[in-house]
Amino acid sequence: MSHIHIDVENLNFSYENGTPVLKNLSFRASENDSVGIIGANGAGKSTFLKLLVGLNLNFTGSIRIEEIPLEKKTLAKIREKIGYVFQDSDSQLFMTTVGEDVAFAPRNYGLPEEEVEKRVQEALEKVHITHLRDKSIFKLSGGEKKLASLATILSMTPDMILLDEPSVALDPKNRRNLIHVLNEFEHLKLIASHDLDFIWDTCNRVVLVNHGEIIADGSPEEILRDGELLDANGLEKPLSLTGR
Amino acid sequence: MSKIGQAISEIQSLETISKEDRRVNRIHPLSKLILTVFYIAVTVSFHKYDLPGLIGMAVYPAAVFMIADLSFREALRRLRVVLPLVMVMGILNPFFDRKIVLMVGALPVSGGVLSMLTLMIKAVLTVLAGYLFIATTPIEEICRALRIIHIPKTFVVVVLLIYRYITVLLSEARRITQAYQLRAPGQKGVHYKVWGSLVGQMLLRSMDRANDIYDSMQLRGFDGDLRTGEKKALTPLDFLWPLLWGAVIVLLRIFPVVELLGGLFV
Predict the structure, then answer these.
(1) Domain edges within chain B
(2) Do B118 and B54 form a contact (C-beta atoms < 8 A)?
(3) If you ran DSSP here, which 8-state letter would residue B193 be given?
(4) Distance CA A163, CA A84 (A)
(5) How far is A62 from chain B (nearest CA, A)?
(6) Do B16 and A136 make contact, defined as CB atoms within 8 angstroms?
(7) Does B233 touch chain A (CB under 8 A)?
(8) How far apart are CA A227 and CA A235, in angstroms?
(9) Which of A111, A113, A138, A154 to probe by mutation at the B interface, max B CB count within 10 Å?
(10) Rounded to whole angstroms, how far apart are CA atoms B50 and B59?
(11) CA distance A153 to chain B (A)
(12) What angle do CA B71, B62, B50 make, to 5 degrees?
């Protein structure tokens, strides 16, 4: 049996004004899962991912990451295990060059400089952007920024990665490259997106969320081919499955 | 390019220059920081009428511009906003201090005019010294130097974040003004009626963005301390640079070098 990496039980979360975002949500994911969290705008996908890395602790219910309960005192330990890629790469990258940004996490974890160098090189190679190492963050294109963002978390060698709308603003070539990179990452992945073609290409499990609740949880075949289910939840079948 | 775009581009180009592999850039940041602070302290310590002494102090920035292979013209262009402001300093001195203290040929020079000139020169020299420091030292290295001299961690992190925040703020300002201009094509500048909402939106958005950046830092192990990579071993140049320049600065401060040199030609 696969080791459970994420275990969420009865998760509830509301905004400060009382608007509920996630309602009684329970979810488990194992180390080999590649889970697509799908749903229309405002369904609660991004909020769910943010809660998993403890960016907001005002929730009720429980979140356990590799058996460790998510609490203020365990945040540092949990965050070492998870790589989180923001929807907007400009929010992720802040150092002056790509290499410096990729080195940021390993340095913070106190690794010796030789190990930092090794991790940076490996992370850049994995996403095929070694040539961008000394390039200024400000001069990257949208696709390059996305790949650089991914490299910044791969250098942490995380046990799992969470990606929020990773395919937004990518041209077809960069999109294909990102799909390839993600499919090569062998650990747990959670990808929140309403780009169902992207989910179809990268995930082996799909969780459909609407109004903060899990509506369906199953294989991509089962969920992404169900036009009625998708339609009822503000989505449409992936173009690659419609035959258009 | 818009003015905001130019400002962003100048910050970026200054960062690029500071990271270039030049001999002066490779000197330990603490050596450069100490030297810069010492130079500024000595420069401002000159008497308000000691114009020749101050002129001698220009040796340091002039030499560093040459050694570091930095463009003086480029520096003046970058400092074009600051320099007029510093030139304004002391502009009222001639009205308050009218005592004649110097004769240049047959031309009487009042104490006010002289003190205005020395104040301006002090301001220009200190601004140039600061510019030389940041043009040869990346912000992360400056922060590292500050930590070495035990400036509190919180203060140093705030300095770094403010520096990063400037670009975030400018980027948001550029987006918002571009969106405005596209929908107000005939409007020159931004109409005063929308200043309030525009500035409000800009601040809210940039705060959101700054918050996301801080989240991103925390998610990657940031604990408030800045780690900027390999601690380079100190080289003889790290000691020689501040010591030699320190000696030159002290000499310029103690001896009227310019007057002595001038005397050779009289």
Answers:
(1) 20-137+230-256
(2) yes
(3) G
(4) 6
(5) 20
(6) yes
(7) no
(8) 9
(9) A138
(10) 16
(11) 8
(12) 140
- What homologous superfamily does CATH list for A4-235? P-loop containing nucleotide triphosphate hydrolases (3.40.50.300)
A97: nearest CA partner in chain B: B16
Q: What share of chain A is helix, strand, coil (3-state, %, to 5)?
A: 40, 25, 30
Residue pair A204/A34 in contact by the 8 Å Cβ criterion: yes
- B12: contact with A, CB 8 A cutoff: yes
- Residue spans of the domains in chain A: they are 4-235
Cβ contact B149:B32 at 8 Å: no
Q: Would an 8 Å CB–CB cutoff place B8 in contact with chain A? A: yes
**Average model confidence (pLDDT) across chain A:** 91
- Is the pLDDT higher at A15 or at A38? A38
pLDDT of B29 strictly over 90: yes
pLDDT in tens, B159-186: 888 887 788 788 888 888 888 888 887 7
The answer to whether the CB of A191 falls within 8 A of the CB of A34 is yes
Per DSSP bridges, beta strands A213-218 and A205-210 are antiparallel
Q: Is A21 helix (H, G, I), strand (E, B) or coil?
A: strand
**Measured between beta carbons, which residues in chain A are less than 8 angstroms from residue B213?**
91-92, 94
| Cα A190 to Cα A196: distance, rounded to the nearest angstrom | 14
How far apart are alpha carbons B132 and A143 in whole angstroms? 35
Instruction: Give every CB contact of residue B107 below 8 A, 6+ residues apart in sequence.
Output: none
What confidence score (pLDDT) does residue B170 get? 85
**A224 exposed, middle or buried (CB, 10 Å; 0-12, 13-18, 19+)?**
buried
HSE value, Cβ hemisphere, 13 Å, CA-based, for A52:
31
Closest CA in chain B for residue A156: B220
Q: Give B208's DSSP letter.
A: H
Give the model confidence (pLDDT) of A88-125 as tens digits. 888 888 887 899 899 999 999 889 999 999 999 999 99
Cβ-Cβ pairs closer than 8 A, A with B, add up to 70
CA distance linking residue B201 with residue B196, whole number of Å: 9
3-class SS at A191?
strand
| Helix (H), strand (E), coil (C) string for B96-140 | HCCCEEEEECCEEEEHHHHHHHHHHHHHHHHHHHHHHHHHHCCHH
